[in-house]
Amino acid sequence: ARADETKTSDYSPLSPQYPRTSTGRRRALALWMTRPDNPLTARVAVNHIWMRHFHQPLVSSVYDFGRNGAKPTHPELLDWLAVEFVDSGWSMKHLHKLIVTSATYRRVSSAKGASQWHAIDPENQQLWRMNSGRMEAEVVRDSLLFCGDMLESKMGGQELENSEALTTFRRSLYYSVHPEEGGKNPLGEWFDAPNALECYRRTRSIVPQQALALTNSDLIHAMSERIVKDTFEIEDSNALIINLFERILSRQPSDAELQVCAKALTDQLRLANDAKHAVSDANLKARQSLVRALLNHNDFITIR
C-alpha cells in the first residue's frame, strides 16, 4: 500500500536548518582580514610566496607570524612587498612576476669567487646568492612527463585520484591531496609531498628511496622508453649524449661528461650483447640505462 505523503508543515528536519540566503558573516570576515590597515594578512601571504621561490622565508616562523614569532630578516622588503601586493588588488600573479624578474631571484647559486660574502654571511641570510633547492614532489613528476613529451598542457578540469597518475598525464596539481591512504602522488611519498593537515612549510628530506624512485619506478621506466624511442634515429653516440643532456638537464655536457657517458654506453651495449640480446634490443637497453642515469642526476631535480 502507498503511504500517505507527509505534509511539509508536519516535518521537522533532524539536522540544523540553514538560511537560504547568506548571513554575510563570512564576507564580513574576509573583508576584515583584507583591510588595508590589517598588518598581518598581506605580510603572511608575501612570506609564503617568497619562501616558495627562495627556499627560505623572510620570517622563519611561518607557523607563528607576529609578535611571538621570529623577526624578519628584511623588514623593509617585507613591508614594501605587502603594500605592493595590496595595491595590485591582491594579485598573486603580479607578486610572482615581480619576484622572479628581480635581480635577487636571478642571482647564481654558486658561491665560487665570493669568499668574502661567504665569510660574512655563510647562511646566506642577505641573499647574496640564490639558494639551490630540490624540486617539489609535483614538479619532479611533471618534469619527468615533460621530458618524455607526455605532459598534458590542458588547463582546468575536475580533480583526479592519485591512482590514475600512471595512466593519465595531467599536471600534478590536478590530483587530490588528503591525509588518507592514496592521498599523495606516486613520487610524493619519497619527495616530501605536502601535508594535507597543515599549510606552513614542507619538510625537506634526503633518503635513499629518492634515488631508487628515480632509477627503478614504473614512471621512470615508461619515460625512459619514451625518450629513447624519440631519439632512436640518432646514430652518433656524441650527438645522442648532447641531445639527452639538453632534453633532460637543459644544458650541454662537458668534455669529461661526454667521455664518461660514451664509455657507459659502450659498456652497457657490451653487457647487453653478452646477455645475447638482439642488436636492436641491446642498443635500446644501453640507451635506457643512460637516460635513467641522467634522470637520477642531481642537476635534474635541483633548482639552482
Would you kindly provide a brief summary of this structure?
This protein is mostly helical. The protein is built from 12 helices and 2 strands, in the order αααααβαααααααβ.
Your description of this structure?
The termini are far apart. Among the domains are: 33-100, no CATH class; 212-303, no CATH class. Strands 1-2 form a two-stranded antiparallel ribbon. It has helices at 25-33, 41-54, 75-87, 92-100, 115-120, 137-147, 208-216, 218-230, 237-248, 255-274, 279-295, 298-301, and strands spanning 133-134, 302-303. The mean pLDDT is 87. By secondary structure, the chain is an all-alpha fold. The chain contains 12 helices and 2 strands, in the order H-H-H-H-H-E-H-H-H-H-H-H-H-E.
Q: State which percent range the strand residues make up.
A: under 5%
CA radius of gyration: 26 Å
Total strands: 2
List the uncertain runs.
none
- What topology, given as strand order, has the largest sheet? 1-2
Task: Report the helical percentage.
Answer: 40-55%
What is the structural class? mainly alpha
Q: What does the largest sheet look like?
A: 2 strands, antiparallel
- Mean pLDDT over the residues: 87
- What is the end-to-end distance? 75 Å
Element order: H for helix, E for strand: HHHHHEHHHHHHHE
Shape: globular
Secondary structure tally, helices: 12
